[in-house]
Amino acid sequence: MARRATGSRGAKPLLITLVQGRASNLTQGTVLTALSAAHRAALEAVVQACPDDGLAQLEAAVGGLPGDKAGELAILIQAEIRDRARRDQAFAPLIPLFRPRADQVAALTFPRPVLARLWREAKVGDEPYLSLLDGAGPSHGDWTLVADRLCARAAAVLRDRPGDVWADPSPPAPVSNLSPAAAPAPTPAELAGCFDLAPLARTATPRLPAWLDRPDDEQAAGLRLLIQDCLAVSPEGGRRMVDILFAHVADAERMLRVVTRTNRLADKEAMLSHSDMGVFVERLLASVTTRVARIAAARPGPDEAAMAEVVQEVAWCAGVLGEIDLCLQLRPDSPWGRAARMARIQVAGQMSGLMKSASAAVHAALPMKRQRLSGRMTRLSPWLDAPATGEAVEAAAGLLNAVGGLRGVAVVFGCEADRMALKTELTDYLSIWANEALDHLADGQVAQPEGPLRLVGVAARFLTLIDALEAARAVRRRAAAAEALLATQGASPAAA
Fold first, then answer.
1. Virtual torsion, Cα 414, 420, 423, 427, nearest 10 deg
2. Do the beta carbons of residue 143 and residue 132 sit within 8 Å?
3. What pTM does this model have?
4. Are 321 and 292 in contact (CB under 8 A)?
5. Which of 50, 130, 160, 469 is a good FRET partner for 445, with 20 to 30 A between their CA atoms?
């Protein structure tokens, strides 16, 4: 991936340099003829190496340049854009397999450079029919015959001449935290098997949204029939088809709804764990384990971005575990059951620590201080000389924001009662703190009301972050009234 990115970045500047050099010659009055064969070959190679998202920008840049050579270059770019559109139409069901998953869940993926090479080999001899792919609509029609033929030719190239399209056809090293079955090696043979299923996948992908939702009996039967058809193609056909569909699904956990409907008994853990489809549960649980480790390594602190990332990780794990609970009844003593239970325990422990840190941070930002009443009698009262800005306040705000982000997912980890208890405790503390501070202001015990009023504003902000909105409104109303009264007495912060 790193090599591809580097090459992509380098292609665009090179092409622009060549184009700008031609334009410079034109501005100097040099008479230019058509591109030479050598120049054309060089520019074609650069255009072909350009990433998809860069071609449109290059087309726009070249379009503003004068001269015949710039015009020829524009034609080359347009031809490449059209060719890639045809490729993406013909190989549409398999295109997502050439992109890594954004959620980093283990999945069957293939090297991106293979796609371009494979297309160039597959279309040889079929150039007169490629125009049928232009503007193709539904997943049926004459164009699908061309597309299916191109996919069949791609499968043949992968089997017969893998070295022509695959720089290193040897299988990569397996992923350490997954079983070999859960991480099929991206080999030419595996990709060829996927191309064998392209015609079936072309008709299946439009039905995927229904399978991911609540399919009726007919739709569920269609899914099971699809898997049977794939198994007739290859013993690995069922798993490969689900891998293809998986590549089209952004939310990995939703794929469990498809997996558990591929067979009438697939929603039973014992059945699923001994089938090829069980690898998808393993992948999700492996990703949960990886994320739990990152959550455990995080330490509560003032870094709001880091805390937001932790919340996202927790929410993702909650989504997966919740979906597993919905689709499967895991046995507590099974490997899957133990993995899910351990994940819950570890995340719950981290959430508990986060909530304790949030409570401590609030007390540190708005502390209480013992005040002497008479003799040895003392009582805790708000420390009105505390700073209203700075690290302590922002650290507390960041932690409270993180705790607020756990609303809804805490149920999955059995922490909702703790979250509600924290909300109640902090609501009481902040309300008492703000009201007593305002009492001191009303009694005239504060020489400079500016600072205490800001601190009361901080308390209202904290109440808002923990979703204690009514308490926050009450504090703000009373603070506004106190500020108005001070203003009439000529002692408001503005007057000061």
1. -160
2. yes
3. 0.79
4. no
5. 469
